[in-house]
């Protein structure tokens, strides 16, 4: 991924007590804490059954996406490219785009083609929608058949990160596919926009909705496509996932719930265009956020009690919070990642009695700063907040502040080694461990899993030596 001046984090913010809003532009990003826009777009598209992402740009962009996605999800992932070259940059990418769509349609028969632009094609100003309309008409005249739906998303990485890319793509999918509602088809289905989550977390959300007997449409569902079993067949296009028919029906649903504040454009669109009520909730990590999610679902069902399995998991989570308190209480933590993930995690860390000392996101967001302030004013913590920074900024703050634990993706490993602190891996990408697609942190059960893993990371780093001494003593 290329770091461009527009990637430049506009400011670094610390909490009110140590406010340090520099608003200075940085002219180099060292180890960005974010991915580029098409990466988020591709992840959203991979949750649609049979969809094929097509990056209109040079081949390196699609290679970069595939490389990151394959090593994180450990799945064969296909991302096509219009393979722009020197001459097509000069004369425009129309021919390449048309050829790519023709080839994909003929050879792979996707249910949908998602064309995402790149830095290059945005800079030369290709009229992607115009080219596609022209292609659609000429294809119909020639072949007397319609093309599959083709959606376009403008995703230059100099104006945003994968977080915006994901959000824009969900909105673009709904804009082009959702049909006007019919009063006779209105139903009690809940649209869920989960945000860019691990497949295991999407599965957990579906499990919760099943327990509560709520029919749902997940926008989009990566639980199968990015976590596929080995069964001898190799799928070129995502199998499983949200169907086009489901997306078309989203306008008839009772409500849209968005579980990530930075992925709410699709829900806002459905509300504005079709009057589908929309509620944005925090990512249901930890006790309070999950309580809020479950009570929202209960209110939609008009019931006060929750299923016994969830009641039990909530109790187990409470029990585990008490059990692990001795190891976690007062531990200083530095956390970095996507804004919604970090917000959810910070809320849970405070429930564990930990001290979020440095809170960082690579995607600059005013919502992020405001929400962090809301969490910390309840606890009285005074963290350094790095809003739109990079891992270099984070490392400098870690050196100054000193923390017991680092939480984030694999890119933080070097900081952890240099500072001799453990790194708890969560987020994207995780390429130096296996099982990233199975990391489950949502709901009571996922939070319980997260709490156990995180506490064991602390125990392994800070208590194991004492443990060995104890075992040796017992052996003697
Ligand atoms: S879209 Fe832009 S930032 Fe992303 S890989 Fe391509 S050139 Fe690099």
CATH superfamily of the largest domain: Nitrogenase molybdenum iron protein domain
Q: Major sheet: size, sense and barrel closure?
A: 6 strands, mixed
Mean pLDDT: 91
The number of helical elements comes to: 18
- Give the proportion of residues in helices: 40-55%
Write down the CATH topology of the largest domain.
Answer: Rossmann fold
Distance linking N and C termini: 56 Å
Radius of gyration: 23 Å
* Count of extended strands: 14
CATH class of the largest domain: Alpha Beta
Low-confidence runs: 1-23
Instruction: State the domain count.
Output: 3
Which class best fits the helix and strand makeup? Answer: alpha/beta
Describe the fold and architecture:
The protein has about 475 residues and is of the alpha/beta class. The chain contains 18 helices and 14 strands. The strands form three sheets. Strands 1-12-11-10-13-14 form a six-stranded mixed beta sheet, sandwiched between helices. Helix 14 (about 365-380) links the parallel strand 11 (about 355-360) and strand 12 (about 385). Helix 11 (about 285-300) packs antiparallel against helix 17, helix 12 packs parallel to helix 17 (about 445-460) and helix 13 runs parallel beside helix 14. Mean pLDDT is about 90; it is low at about 1-25. Bound molecules: iron/sulfur cluster. GO terms for molecular function: nitrogenase activity.
């Amino acid at each position: 991924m290329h770091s461009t001046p527009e990637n430049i984090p506009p400011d670094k913010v610390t909490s009110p007590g140590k406010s340090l809003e520099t608003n200075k532009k940085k002219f180099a990003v060292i180890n960005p804490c974010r991915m580029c826009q098409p990466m988020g777009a591709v992840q959203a598209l991979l949750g649609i059954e049979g969809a094929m992402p097509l990056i209109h740009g040079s081949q390196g962009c699609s290679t970069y996406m595939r490389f990151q996605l394959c090593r994180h999800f450990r799945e064969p992932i296909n991302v096509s490219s219009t393979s722009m070259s020197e001459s097509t940059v000069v004369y425009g990418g129309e021919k390449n785009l048309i050829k790519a769509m023709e080839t994909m349609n003929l050879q792979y028969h996707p249910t949908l083609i998602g064309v995402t632009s790149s830095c290059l094609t945005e800079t030369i100003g290709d009229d992607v929608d115009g080219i596609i309309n022209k292609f659609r008409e000429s294809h119909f005249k020639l072949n007397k058949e319609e093309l599959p739906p083709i959606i376009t998303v403008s995703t230059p990485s100099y104006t945003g990160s994968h977080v915006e890319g994901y959000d824009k793509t969900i909105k673009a999918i709904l804009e082009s596919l959702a049909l006007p509602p019919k009063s006779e088809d209105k139903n009690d289905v809940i649209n869920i926009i989960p945000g860019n989550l691990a497949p295991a977390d999407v599965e957990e959300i579906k499990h919760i909705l099943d327990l509560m007997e709520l029919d749902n449409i997940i926008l989009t569902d990566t639980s199968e496509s990015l976590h596929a079993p080995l069964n001898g067949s190799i799928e070129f296009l995502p199998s499983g996932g949200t169907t086009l028919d489901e997306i078309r029906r989203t306008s008839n649903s009772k409500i849209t719930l968005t579980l990530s504040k930075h992925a709410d454009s699709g829900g806002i669109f459905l509300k504005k265009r079709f009057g589908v009520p929309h509620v944005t909730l925090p990512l249901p990590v930890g006790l309070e956020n999950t309580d809020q999610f479950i009570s929202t679902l209960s209110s939609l069902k008009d019931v006060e009690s929750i299923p016994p399995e969830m009641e039990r998991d909530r109790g187990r989570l409470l029990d585990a919070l008490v059990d692990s308190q001795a190891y976690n209480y007062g531990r200083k933590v530095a956390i970095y990642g996507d804004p919604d993930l970090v917000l959810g995690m910070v809320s849970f860390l405070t429930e564990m009695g930990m001290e979020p000392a440095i809170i960082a996101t690579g995607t600059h967001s005013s919502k992020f700063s405001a929400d962090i302030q809301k969490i910390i004013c309840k606890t009285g913590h005074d963290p350094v907040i790095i809003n739109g920074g990079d891992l270099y900024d984070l490392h400098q703050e870690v050196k100054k502040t000193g923390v017991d634990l680092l939480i984030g993706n694999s890119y933080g490993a070097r900081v952890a080694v240099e500072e001799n602190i453990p790194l708890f891996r969560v987020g994207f990408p995780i390429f130096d461990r296996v099982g990233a697609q199975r990391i489950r942190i949502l709901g009571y059960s996922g939070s319980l899993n997260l709490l156990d893993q995180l506490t064991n990371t602390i125990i392994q780093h800070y208590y194991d030596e004492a443990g060995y001494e104890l075992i040796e003593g017992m052996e003697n």
